[in-house]
Specification:
Blueprint: H1 11-20, E1 48-51, H2 56-70, E2 74-77, H3 115-127, E3 131-137, E4 140-143, H4 193-198, E5 204-206, H5 212-226, E6 232-236, H6 243-251, E7 264-267, E8 285-287, H7 289-301, E9 321-323, H8 330-333, H9 343-354, E10 359-364, H10 401-404, H11 406-413, E11 418-423, E12 428-433, E13 437-442, E14 448-453, E15 459-462, E16 469-470, E17 475-476, E18 480-483, E19 487-492, E20 496-501, E21 538-546, E22 554-559, E23 573-574, E24 584-592, E25 596-605, E26 608-611, E27 617-620, E28 624-628, E29 639-647, E30 655-660, E31 674-675, E32 677-680, E33 683-691, E34 694-703, E35 709-711, E36 717-721, E37 725-730
Parallel strand pairs: 1-2, 1-10, 2-3, 3-6, 6-7, 7-8, 8-9, 9-10, 21-28, 29-37
Antiparallel strand pairs: 4-5, 11-12, 12-13, 13-20, 14-19, 15-18, 16-17, 21-24, 22-23, 22-25, 25-26, 25-27, 29-33, 30-31, 30-34, 32-33, 34-35, 34-36
Helix pairs in contact: 1-6, 2-3, 5-6, 7-9
């Protein structure tokens, strides 16, 4: 049964809310909607990712390349309505919060794109089973500090209490002085519910939602995006609007085209004794800040065993809660746990996605420093740049290996509760999700090895907390675990998780070496031919392979024996590498000792399977095997050493890294760059070994102990590893 919150307000609840607010129930004069009907589509699941401040075109691409295939059910986007434009505020150019000061309900131009681009994004995400959630600002318009700084982003004139052109439809709808709450001053008494709901939040012009005409215009805007296919809303500052007023606005909303039914609503409420969360829970889900504080603190402090028993945080049931580890406010104002905390943060996100309490909302953002108002990566005029994950500017938390496969886990275990709970000290917790999944979380600095009992069927499983299971290909980009007799033994790395589920079984059992499992030349060019092999005692066979890969690719050994996948890449042996050892990949597997077999190297990643060229290779069980991609066995690999000598002045606590466009330099991910030594300070030194002839681009970055990153300025540096080379540079 779905736990998805419903925006429909029951008639009795609406009547009660209206009566409590002293309002008259009037017919919701719905705006006419287009006759065109969107094709029916089913959402992937209930997990939402917030692509904070992303351009519409970048969101659309992410839905197609990542969110849809990974099983995300929804994507929250930043407010699409026309906003103020503030070139400088609080030490930041074009601060992020300017988007939360509307000046009209027009969609034709914001910092993130045009109306047509917005509509295209909604359609493309819907086609992938991903609902679009709009962050809607309905409590207020612009503020004192923004008045007179117009026009807005689409050219509309305004003052704090006058907005003459709300829509571009010729209706003449506008807001004037009388349309704002009569308080006309900043909230002074936070112990007064009436002040909180009817006075100005941070000097922002508070709309008089007691007026049915104001509510009509707000609902008209929300319907304008629903009719484009928007499936739900995050209601900003909901606690600053009276409950009865919100109930009436929600009752006026259209059904959702494509997905069908009422729009999903979740409301931003900081619950307290004056205005509790539960005041709004009858109208839709509520952002559960009590959960955020408790879970973030538990993972930060390494005290997670107590999370085996989850209370109704803030008095909210799981069905009423939107859960999160951080959001765009807490990242900056109350940074309990953020991307800057590294593995513990992603571990907490994985837990949130694995646990049945609440509906998870994952933050995916951009890098920011000490200026809390810092806006997204932008051009000189404030236009948001397209997102490039791993470029040092966009963090893209949802792509982290600990998180990327967890929406699929959540979808597979939906409807099951916790079972077979395991704790091992304060920092370790594991649990089953019925007979559908099993997850273990290690919030300590040491590895956790033990046997686990599960309800899972026997088989070989992809660990989706270390990579992604690609259902279309059967490929696992993470580690694998074999469940036998309902249990397994595994080691959960420090500050990492392990997660298995029934929809991510590799090979669906023991592969058969029969010719039916053999790739044909038409589907796998250069593919191998199976060779039946007799049974013999097992022997450890070690592979040492030299292979250059693109970022996101892994190297596998695939061969004629069942232990090598029986020519099925999904069942092959995954090799490993590291920053210091790349491009050398290593791995081992038990094979029948003394038994000949055939094999080839395969690169898997980025949605593709690539076989190496040439004939099948030959090996013998129980021996050591060496090879180089696309080179016949016995041909020595050609390599070149690259030494870096960079003069960089730093402050105490800073380190220097080389980050580039190849895996050995992190694939532009600063967290995976090559660390340099300060032994010859201010000259920082280090080196890598690359296949001869490898061209690459690189830059130097400074990193602080808490993960903040500073990139050097200027264009990318470039070099080619034609032979031993020393690169002597000075920080730009």
């Amino acid at each position: 049964m779905s736990r998805r919150p419903r925006a429909a307000v029951p008639a009795a609840a609406l009547a009660a809310a209206l009566a409590a607010g002293g309002l008259t129930a009037v017919a919701a004069a719905a705006e006419p909607r287009p006759a065109e009907a969107a094709a029916a589509v089913t959402a992937n699941g209930d997990a939402i990712v917030h692509l904070f401040q992303w351009r519409w075109s970048s969101v659309a691409q992410e839905c197609e390349s990542t969110l849809g295939p990974a099983g995300w059910g929804g994507v929250q986007v930043s407010p699409p309505q026309e906003h103020v434009v503030i070139p400088s505020a609080e030490g930041a150019g074009y601060p992020w919060w300017q988007d939360y000061q509307p000046v009209s309900y027009r969609l034709d131009r914001t910092r993130r794109g045009t109306r047509d681009e917005f509509a295209d994004m909604v359609r493309r995400c819907r086609d992938q089973g991903v609902k679009v959630y709009v962050d809607v600002v309905l409590n207020h318009m612009s503020g004192t500090g923004s008045a007179g700084n117009g026009p807005g982003s689409a050219g509309t004139p305004y003052t704090k209490y006058a907005y003459p052109n709300l829509f571009d439809d010729g209706s003449g709808d506008s807001y004037r002085y009388a349309d704002f709450a009569p308080c006309y001053h900043r909230i002074d008494n936070w112990g007064s519910k009436s002040e909180i709901q009817d006075c100005e939040l941070l000097d922002l012009a508070d709309l008089n939602t007691a007026d049915p005409e104001v509510r009509r215009k707000i609902a008209k805007y929300m319907n304008s995006v629903i009719d484009l296919g928007v499936a739900g809303f995050r209601v900003d500052a909901a606690k600053h609007v009276q409950e009865a007023h919100l109930a009436d606005i929600y009752s006026r909303l259209h059904d959702v085209p494509g997905f069908g039914g009422r729009p999903d609503i979740f409301q931003e409420v900081y619950g307290d004794s004056v205005i509790p969360y539960t005041a709004y829970a009858g109208m839709g889900a509520v952002t559960n800040f009590d959960y955020q504080r408790a879970v973030s603190s538990a993972f930060r402090d390494g005290n997670i065993s107590r999370l085996a028993s989850m209370p109704n945080h803030g008095g909210l049931t799981g069905a009423q809660s939107i859960t999160f580890v951080d959001n765009h406010d807490t990242q900056r104002s109350a940074p309990t746990l953020t991307y800057k905390n590294g593995d513990r943060y992603y571990l907490a996100d994985a837990f949130m996605l694995a646990h049945p309490y609440g509906r998870p909302q994952l933050m995916s953002s951009y890098a920011f420093g000490s200026v809390t108002a810092q806006g997204p990566p932008s051009t000189a005029d404030g236009t948001t740049k397209a997102t490039t994950c791993g470029d040092g500017q966009w963090i893209c938390e949802h792509r982290n290996p600990q998180v990327a496969g967890m929406p699929g886990f959540r979808n597979a275990v939906a409807g099951t509760g916790l079972a077979q709970v395991v704790t091992d000290g304060n920092g370790r917790l594991a649990f089953a999700r019925g007979d559908k999944g099993f997850a273990a979380f290690n919030a300590t600095d040491g590895a956790w090895s033990r046997a686990f009992a599960t309800g899972l069927p026997d088989g070989r499983y992809c660990d989706v907390a270390s990579g992604v299971y690609q259902r279309t290909t059967g490929i696992c980009t993470g580690d694998t675990v074999t469940v036998s007799g309902g249990g397994f033994t595994a080691t959960v790395p420090a500050n990492h998780a392990l997660a298995l589920h029934v929809d991510a079984r590799v090979g669906a059992g023991t592969p058969s070496p029969s010719p039916s499992a053999t790739p044909s030349a038409s589907t796998s060019p250069g593919g191998p031919t199976p060779t039946p092999t007799p049974t013999a005692p097992a022997g450890l066979t070690r592979f040492t392979v030299t292979a250059q890969t693109d970022y996101g690719q892994e190297v596998y050994v695939v061969g004629s024996l069942p232990q090598l996948g029986a020519w099925n890449p999904a069942g092959g042996v995954k090799l490993t590498t590291s920053t210091s050892s790349y491009p050398t990949w290593t791995g081992a597997v038990d094979l029948p000792a003394g038994t000949p077999f055939e094999w080839k190297l395969v690169k898997i990643g980025n949605g593709a399977v690539q076989w190496e060229n040439g004939p099948n290779r030959a090996g013998t069980g129980g021996t050591a095997v060496t090879a180089t991609w696309n080179q016949p066995s016995g041909t020595p690999p050609a390599s070149a050493t690259v030494d870096f000598r960079a003069t960089v002045n730093t402050v105490y606590g800073e380190s220097v890294y080389v980050v580039g466009d190849i895996p050995a330099l992190g694939g532009w991910d600063p967290a995976r760059g090559l660390p340099l030594s300060a032994a010859s300070y201010p000259v920082w030194t280090g080196g890598v070994t690359l296949p001869a002839g490898t061209p690459f681009a690189y830059k130097y970055v400074k990193r602080t102990a808490d993960g903040q990153v500073v990139w050097e300025s200027g264009a990318n540096r470039t070099a080619t590893a034609t032979g031993p080379v020393t690169l002597t540079d000075t920080w730009h």
